[in-house]
Amino acid sequence: MTPALRGAAFALIVGMTPAPGLAEKADRDQPVNIEADRVTVDDRNKTHVFEGKVVLTQGSLVIRADRLVVTQDEEGFQSGVATAGAGGLATFRQKQEASEEIVEGEAERIEYDRRTDRARLFNRARVVSGGDEVRGHQIEYDAATEKFAATSQPTRSGQDGGDGRVRAIIQPKSGNNAGASAAQ
After folding, report:
1. Domain residue spans in the chain?
2. Are 153 and 160 a contacting pair, CB within 8 Å?
3. Nearest 5°: CA angle at 9, between 6 and 12?
4. In 3-state terms, what secondary structure has residue 175?
5. What is the spatial distance between Cα 9 and Cα 149, in angstroms, rounded to a whole number?
6. Which CA distances in Å does 106 have to 102, 111, 113, 178?
7. CA separation for the pair 57, 41 (Å, rounded)
8. How far is CA 54 from CA 14, 67, 172, in A?
9. Which residues contact 62 (CB under 8 A, 6 or more apart)?
10. pLDDT tens by residue, 103-128
11. Residue 123 in contact with residue 109, Cβ under 8 Å?
12. How far apart are CA 166 and CA 135, in angstroms?
């Protein structure tokens, strides 16, 4: 699995500081722009709620959701939750550092907690990077430990057409055609 795929979930929410070496470094220095049909700001509780066709951009990062809630705790750590409307998916897309590779992901709900440096994608979660793909009920990335996990929700009798399994597609890496050379 590519490091970009493992770390993709980390760099996907609220334009907060991405994992080193994963997201485009220049993105961190770009302004965060958010468009929505409406916004509610609660300064006392340090909560911003963006609703209706929300589009967040910061450099090459683009997040689309029906609703985005950003909160900040007393110590200044931020967390965010991007959710989709009925039947839809919240999405993200970002160019990776030192390559032209694009990482894309989607889920019904995407959460990010800056305090713990964890990102989680829930329900119909999918992350694609360089032809590699992971699907599951939940995909989580812990930037502090650089651990990646995908789990699937067990289903009863294959409800919803699923069998309760995680799916991964891992492409062969270019330059590994030694077997082809040996065969000639």
Report:
1. 3-174
2. no
3. 140
4. coil
5. 10
6. 14, 12, 17, 36
7. 19
8. 11, 6, 36
9. 55, 56, 92, 93, 94
10. 888 999 999 887 887 889 999 999 88
11. yes
12. 6
Length of the chain in residues, anyone?
184
Residues facing 125 on adjacent strands:
136
Which three-class secondary structure state does DSSP give residue 23?
strand
Residue range 125-182, pLDDT digits in tens: 998 888 889 999 999 877 667 677 899 886 665 444 467 889 999 988 776 544 444 4
Q: For the whole model, what pTM was predicted?
A: 0.74
List of residues 6+ apart from 26 with CB closer than 8 A: 59
What are the distances in angstroms from CA 96 to CA 23, 27, 102, 147? 5, 10, 6, 18
Domain 3-174 has CATH 1.10.287.110: no
Q: Show the tokens assigned to 173.
A: 């890496």
Do 123 and 107 meet the contact criterion of CB atoms below 8 Å apart? Answer: yes
Take residue 142 and report the two structure tokens written for it. Answer: 């812990």
Burial 97-110 (b: 16+ CB within 10 A, else e): beeeeebbbbbbbb
Give the pLDDT confidence of 75-105 residue by residue, as tens digits. 888 888 999 999 999 998 888 766 778 888 8
